[in-house]
Amino acid sequence: MSKWGSSIFSFLFLVIGYLGETWFPFVVLGSNIWVLAYLLAYLIVGLPVLNKGWNLILKGEVFTEFFLMGLATLGAIFIGEFPEAVAVMLFYTVGELLQHQAVNKARGNIKSLLDLRPDKANVIRGDEIIILNPEEVSVGETIEIKAGERVPLDGVLVQQGGSFDTSALTGESKPLFKNVGEEVLAGMVNLESLNTIQVTKEFKASSLAKIIRTLQNASSRKAKTEQFIRKFAKIYTPIVTFLAIGLVGIPYLIVEDYQFKDWLYRSLVFLVISCPCALVISIPLGYFGGIGAASRNGILFKGSDFLDRITQITTVIFDKTGTLTQSPFEVQEVKENPQGAKDWMSLAATLEQKSNHPIAKALVKFVLQKKIPLLETEEMKEIPGKGIAGTISGKKVLVGNQLLLEENRIALPFGEENDAFTLIYVAVEGKYCGQFLIADQIKPDAKDTVIALRNNGIQEIFIFSGDKQEVTELVGNTIGVDRAYGGLLPEQKVSLWDELKTDQSRVTAFVGDGINDAPVLALADIGIAMGGMGSDLAIESADVVIQTDQLSKIIQAMEIGKATKSIVWQNIGMAFGVKFLVLSLGAAGIAGMWEAVFADVGVALLAILNAIRINKIF
User: Fold this and answer.
1) Are 110 and 289 within 8 A, CB to CB?
2) Is the pTM of this model over 0.70?
């Protein structure tokens, strides 16, 4: 029988018992028949609670809400308060059912994302299409995606472009058009005709799999408020149990007309009121609701503690390239060394095609547009903050900034002539071959985000960039940051962050997207990664991931954090306030068991309804 069915039968027997007691108080076999109705009503909903409480006692967990409920209701039966004993268990059961519905509603946003996990992939092998589990598909294989189907694995389009629904991953409702050669991600929905995709990542390494793991693990990172309430409940419950015992025994010593039944009743009321249900259930649900609301808006919090921490930020540090600036990066100019290797552009693009960095994508796009063929990479190593080194067709190739070439003692025939560009140098077999001059664009919401951050109480805003100081300062002055630091290697970013943290009152957030940002993302009080174009290492190192790469989402993440914190403290205040009031009235004999039921189950339900309110706000 379902819990709802049990509750209905319990209620019917409660009504039968009440009517029998009130209107037909006759005796059968020496017992009032209405007592049997009450006992049946109690056992139907009470046995599961008593059983759970007993099992927890056997495990050493004595002072739980189930223990308090069992003790209070059995005591009520002992003194003949049958209707109230049944009512406590019945309303507790109904309240628990409503709580589960509220929890399921709050989990809806996350569950809908977890349900995106595809269960099949149409793999093209020879002339056949084989249906496999996505985890069985290898990198390099080609899969077919029909109109209306969900993409099962990350890959690139190989035949024709098409529109894709990305809302499940990014929270954006507008379809996104992808051209041939562009990346599509697992979880997107193909909106148009049949498409084929070449798989670039195993399922466990896909963007969707990482999002799913992030959300599944989020509940393990508890906020300090949540941790405190759980610890508090373990101390609070035994204290109120002994206070309830004292409420029966102490008056015997000091009250002249002491009536055991009256004081036992007060004690039982005290026990029911003191159940910490509202706190233990509604507070974790409040944080869970915050994580769910954020995920629906394309913001992934890796734990409820980060919802709290994002409200405490005083200093925000931005990376520049790919964070404050955006594609399309474009190659504005090419300078060539006539004595260098003739195929230097092909070699450079061959190395850069393995990188997710926006500048690398611009370089590769430029070379392909010139109909220059790419080659096979034999060996490749990405050097954070400097560039890429590799071997192609037996040739040692370097692609990166001036530091990379100087580190390898490669002379440059001319210096940096235009401070407005990012320069990418290429050397083959130890000899400088040429350079690409690349310009990027400031994201349209960058300046408004800086203004909004200041309006939200952020005291300091900096830029830490590996790009040239002149370019970094130009971006910083345009969007209005306090100071811009350019030409930084990853270790120099860490050193600057260490200097900032000598002031312990600073709570820092670092926003980045590249491999060279990963150390500071991990060290910052809260690391925020741009998840759309960001590197895997940056996303893994961060505490919060912005799926859409929109800077304005940082403000929304802060607002969700503040709203969640406010709701949690509202619940704490309401639960303690009502319980203290009714406990006082119960101890004085003014409040009875019905008021106790409201103070326990009623307040828990109100707190839960308040907790899920965040999903309507965002």
Assistant:
1) no
2) no
